[in-house]
Amino acid sequence: MSINPIDIDNYPAILQDKAQEVASIFKDLALPAPTIFPSQAVHYRLRAEFRLWHDNAEAYYAMFDPAEPKTPVRIDKFPTASKAIDDLMPLLLSKINSQTVLSKRLFQVEFLSTLSGDMLVSLIYHRLLDEEWEAVARTLASELNIQIIGRSKKQKLVLDRDYVVENLPVDGETFIYKQYEGGFTQPNGALNATMISWAKEQVKEKLDRDLLELYCGNGNFTIPLSKQFRKVLATEISKTSVKAAHENFALNKVSNIEVLRMSSEELTSALNKERSFRRLEHVDLDSYNIDTVLVDPPRAGLDHNTRELISSFENIVYISCNPETLHRDLQILTKTHAADAFALFDQFPYTHHMECGVFLKRRVQP
Known about the structure:
Elements: H1 11-24, E1 35-37, E2 47-55, E3 58-65, E4 68-74, H2 83-98, H3 100-103, E5 106-113, E6 119-125, H4 131-144, E7 147-152, E8 155-158, E9 163-170, E10 173-180, H5 189-203, E11 206-214, H6 222-226, E12 229-236, H7 239-251, E13 257-261, H8 264-271, E14 290-295, H9 304-310, E15 315-320, H10 323-333, E16 337-345, E17 355-362
GO molecular function: tRNA (uracil(54)-C5)-methyltransferase activity, S-adenosyl methionine-dependent
Active site: 321, 355
EC number: 2.1.1.35
């Protein structure tokens, strides 16, 4: 069986209904009317992963319906994924099915692509990978012009590199990002560029002021926004993301960013002079003249102390992947700040998920 999980013709109506539903969550906060940013209707997702299901001598890509979690649904075409992934899937599967050394105990295939054409495929096995597998996989990588990683329990074989390179166009500039396998990246590349552009438009240019960014990831927002501020102080807890961020700063020739591997809670304690950290010995926190903070937290949103911290700054850019926790946080933040702009980014069409952006400015005290 082959499935097509998207209703292309009805996408505008589906988006409108979803946007109204999400906006209604915030009806008690008197936010501005949201600006709605649609996705491409097809080929919008730069990442995809599938089980590799074996049926006698043939293997095929499979997904599982939560209503029937033990029954594989065969996937022959996947228009949700980028066109590069969708085009590669049958070619790769044919190669896998033609060589036992590739298909034997292969149980998962993961794709990571970019808007600029790079492709990384992870083949995940229930067996130890040997020299024969590596030789055949290298030939496959060359034939398909892709990067390949082989994984099994406690084993990772990187044939060339374990990242893709994205060249992301934003407002007439191109930003370069290394995106590592297993590291967080925005899955909808075109909407990611739109979100960055929206954030840049909100904060304008403030070359005499500094930016604080919490949860900076691989520098996705950090690098474009750094051009609009004197300095940027950023935090991230993932080792992979911090490594990528440093490399991406170098690739983009950006030198005014300091990224710290620490949680937002820890930085809050440091800025409030409640704790000292050895990781901050080389950083003069008092030298920063921060008036704008950007947060892009996980689905759980912000903790109490971080909300208190960011409410002390003039401007807040809040990017959220969870409208419910965003609403909770805005109930508190709007006591000190007024929402100046509200945006909905449909990163995940045909699902209930919606990415939100809110720009808040400190209220003028009477």
